[in-house]
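tmp note - 6-phospho-beta-glucosidase
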Amino acid sequence: MARIKIAYLGGGSSRAPGTMASFMHHGAEFDGSEFVLIDLDPAHLEIVKSITEKMARNAGLDITVTATTDQREGLRDVDAVLSSFRPGGFAARAIDERIPLKHGVIGQETQGPGGMMMALRSVQVIKELCANLADVAPKARIFNYTNPVNIVSQAVADNTDIPIVSFCEGPIVFPPVVAKAAGLDPDKLVANMTGINHNCWSNEATYDGQDAFPILRERWEALRDRPTDDVNGLRALHLAVAMESIPSDYFNYYYFKDEILRERQLAPMTRSEVIMSSLDDYWAHYREQAESGAPELDPARSRGGIHELELAIEAISAFYNDTGARLPFNIPNTGGVLPGFDERTVVELWGTVDAKGFHPEPQKPLPRSVLGITRQLADYQILTAKAAWDGTVADAVRAMAANPLVPSLTVAEALYGELATAQAAWLPERLIP
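out:
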């Protein structure tokens, strides 16, 4: 079993109790390890620390837990960093969502202008993380869950030698969205998802061992005019049939953008505002559990549930315990393993993980019907990573104009100016107009 020192950057976030509960669920794989919780909020850190210590003790685990607001000291001599934080909190995300709507553009956490602003904020913290690791933990690896995970990884890979791999459950959860919308058994739809994070497609798909698309087309024709509560899933099914490729349902923002824009403009609250309305109750529940002798998280009162970031935890275990687990991950396209993309591009694909590293499986090309938009998003990813790491306002505007959700240069300029001004507290001076 791995006996390692793991820093959790974001250890006081609203997802942190669920993440640490997931670590303790995998506790035997990490027995003897030390966890360092790092965050800006000391009160929240103490709550998460107390919950984790009690869960470890009750499970009979030899786990040490410390907490600090000093990032540099918290990173000292760590073997691994789990990165999952939200710079600017949900208040910044609300700005990401609201301001684009004024300009007739969808505001979203990882897509379009909102996703780009999240990237600019996230990379500033990651850049500090990399500088600190070089000084106090030069052998450490980053296991990243901070969004947008592809742009964060791209920035680190382009500018440092620090090993970083990013994770997202998307390649696991996207095919079932389509299967359920079609009224099919999700376990029988097998699709290999690849591309870039949150923007991947299938390059192979079968249903019960047969070509999936004739079956999906038949289901789409039967269901297309029926009322449904699963509008998102039905759009993904429509897109799968039209493109003959299972999509990430984040592509709904691109292929159904007019409908979704109207829905977002008419909605009384953005997604961030909905989450913020629940935060006080989440933390009330966490405080209750921290005071309990046997903490037990309620999924309904826990941000994201009680098994958070489990994919990253499985990857950490696979690497340090040398298991050879098969998982999806985001790494540079070294050797052109995914045809059609530059070798420097961070791509999302499946592979195995063992003590020697992350080994991607060779990939077939994406269908030509979906390759163009995915390559455009990959170029936007590289441009945004450049702007976030050391770029200027001009670099940021170029990146925003490259995103398919932004309709023109003039909109990109106006949008970036308003967003960056509203978020100046979380951005470096070089990115403020």
